Amino acid sequence: MNTTEITVLEEIELDNPIFIEALPGLGHVGKLAADHMIDELGATKFAEIYSPTFPPQVLVKEEGIIDNMLNELYYLKDVGEDNLDLILLVGNTQALSPEGQYLTCKEILEFVNQFDIDRIYTLGGMVTSPQPVENPKVFGAATCEENIELLKEAEVEIRSNDGGIVGASGLFLGLGIRQGIQGTCLMGETPGYFIDAEAAEALLLKLSLLLNFEINTDKLDERAEETRQMIAKAQQMEQDLINKANAGNADDLRYIG
Amino acid sequence: MNTTEITVLEEIELDNPIFIEALPGLGHVGKLAADHMIDELGATKFAEIYSPTFPPQVLVKEEGIIDNMLNELYYLKDVGEDNLDLILLVGNTQALSPEGQYLTCKEILEFVNQFDIDRIYTLGGMVTSPQPVENPKVFGAATCEENIELLKEAEVEIRSNDGGIVGASGLFLGLGIRQGIQGTCLMGETPGYFIDAEAAEALLLKLSLLLNFEINTDKLDERAEETRQMIAKAQQMEQDLINKANAGNADDLRYIG
Amino acid sequence: MNTTEITVLEEIELDNPIFIEALPGLGHVGKLAADHMIDELGATKFAEIYSPTFPPQVLVKEEGIIDNMLNELYYLKDVGEDNLDLILLVGNTQALSPEGQYLTCKEILEFVNQFDIDRIYTLGGMVTSPQPVENPKVFGAATCEENIELLKEAEVEIRSNDGGIVGASGLFLGLGIRQGIQGTCLMGETPGYFIDAEAAEALLLKLSLLLNFEINTDKLDERAEETRQMIAKAQQMEQDLINKANAGNADDLRYIG
Amino acid sequence: MNTTEITVLEEIELDNPIFIEALPGLGHVGKLAADHMIDELGATKFAEIYSPTFPPQVLVKEEGIIDNMLNELYYLKDVGEDNLDLILLVGNTQALSPEGQYLTCKEILEFVNQFDIDRIYTLGGMVTSPQPVENPKVFGAATCEENIELLKEAEVEIRSNDGGIVGASGLFLGLGIRQGIQGTCLMGETPGYFIDAEAAEALLLKLSLLLNFEINTDKLDERAEETRQMIAKAQQMEQDLINKANAGNADDLRYIG
């Protein structure tokens, strides 16, 4: 129970796939980009990941149907000009505790590396200013100079000496370094506090350039709008709840028999 | 020691029982409803659950007698028109840490599923407004459409796309999904910061409708009043303690030899 | 490493000893009382307890000498009219995390119960008002009615229905209940934010009455004064440190290579 | 995975080395001093330490190259007049959780003690006032009187009865006490909120006096300046991020699918 449970839905074979991580983060930039890729390019889910390191809750979706906190693995074969195989990691959460992050990322990487991962891309958002920017930039960092050169060719801005990459987007690259798998992080510029379709589009365009595939981004806005509505509703309820808790000390109820 | 300790008080046989979770939460709505069921329908305690994931404390009850933080399992046989067997999970606490929540819920579900659980109901409160409402609604969510239909027939309001169900009321349903056990969450509308007998009554009426049994709710108010007094006293003492700690930095005393 | 390390300093034999817990807590009431007993009655240290659940630090004592965070076990033989054997648990800290509290208390109780513990007393402080009180009361609670009666005979105030006893003073009693060892908690009335010699004296007098031994409390004030000075110095330094951290964000330095 | 991973880069032999800990802390005083020693005296890295107890992130260094959170072990042979062998522990982080601190320090000490450690020195900063001081003092504490005497001879100020030494600088000394290895802590006086080259210089001069070696400190200022710039940049980005999170509740985005 203390370890990640990976349920395989389909036995597949892949040819040195590229592993793309896009779990929820700042502005949902990476998640939105990857969900769109899955939809547009017709990726297939082949595994579900469940972990006691996730937040201890379930989600209420459309029509009152309950869903677990989950990560999911999708695959795509023969993508773009270079006929690349891809594995995408998406989901509705990341591990909650620092050690849970290390544990879960390590077990997921071990699982996907059975396919002999060629490279890792991690997708996220990066905040440069509180105001929304007109033409969001895409920032990058990588585990080796060779990948930095590729980023420069694709006109990705190189981050330099500027702190850390926190969470799964950082840890997968760090674990990759330890296992000799090279990796790159792409971050779309975003104010971070709303579902940012423009940053996701900018990110996707750079990724498609780097991996040499084509993707239609017309429906990205639509998808962002849907997510926005769902979150607005959830935030309203959580805010009400916090107000009440503060007003009446609801927490104190917890321990009394 | 790092796992849940379940002490069996009576060996029983049950016929595909329904598992009802009602641990302490918002407005104590679920707990109050289940404690009342246990009392009115004469349920029998058959197991006690003790865990290092509970808050590290004991409770002082009537006449200075000390009690452990515990969860308890009760059973009822041949309830209502459908002669249902029920297992009720109640107690004075839930696990404290996120991973403790996952661990404890999983171990409890494994234990009760030795009786081949038919369905899971989790009972809780839901905050919609800071003001007490006149006729509290009952909200619902479920793990499958079939149960959503049953909720609609019972005129339970369906939550939709509105965030999460946190803690044991969520996790038991999520664990159920993974084990092929269907489940439903019922939530009584409550401001959340007092022991809410009216929300508990509304909840109980819907549950009795769904499970087809009759229950007298006359004494619910009385029970709520008792609990209210006990909590008021405890909160007063905790508040004094917090005031002092803030005033004089009592915490700093802890580490000095 | 993840468990408590108990170093036995002397192999001893005891006759159904009474186990007295007095780790640091509110107003240091229990600790001060027990340290005084050890000194006045000439108790002998027979074991040291070290645990990764303690705060991750060491203490700087007199003349710059460094000491570990430790709990210690002392024994006394043939105390008072009833020739009681006693084990006292003292130290400079308690476990830091909730699960650490459960784990450490359980392992210590297992260790001392090799001597067939007769009863448990846990000593602590209790805050009733922010102002220092002239004649501090002693409050009590117990795991069975028999002990409550003894408390009443000794004119200890019985707490009733008023919340919890948090930390080691609560957990040892709760663990005792589970192992069939009866126990009593004595709490000296204290504002909680200074080293309270008067509360410790009141507590000691009740304990000596209950266990039927005599003890001179003249030096308690002196001992409290020493501890007070040591703590004042430590608090001043911590406050400076916090001020600086807030002013300059010293925490941010931690992760930069 | 739950334990420290130590990668040996070079098999070495050392003659009862002195173990010097200098992980990041207040004012980066210890780290700066040790990094300078490594540079000036030409120390060789012989092991890298990776742990799930470190913060769950990676660092972006020069030119966008990503680096793991790591601790590193360097050695020096025949240092100074006394021909001492030294092991230096440096890195970009310490363990994050209290139990992680105990675990990681214990495993590192076990590893380096294969060389039969003679003594331990831990290097850190100490805050005495919010204003920068002109001639920073060096404070000390030790596990035995013999070492206190050596500190006094070197005109190090002895801390006395003044609270704790938190983190690796404290724990290594405490673990040393338990294993019969004597140790000393040296702390450079610093306001704590900037990279303090002057405090590091003062610290280094005392250490070189105690260990009887010579070291040129001319480039310490330069090194401090570089680190300062890197941190200023990182702090700016983190602050922007915090502002945004507070403004727009970015955290709430995390759990929505």
TrEMBL record, chains A, B, C, D:
Alphabetized InterPro entries for the sequence: MJ1210-like, Proteasome_assmbl_chaperone_2, PSMG2_sf
Gene3D superfamilies: PAC-like subunit (3.40.50.10900)
Keyword terms: Coiled coil
Coiled-coil ranges from the UniProt annotation: 217-244
Protein's recorded name: PAC2 family protein
Native source species: Methanobrevibacter thaueri
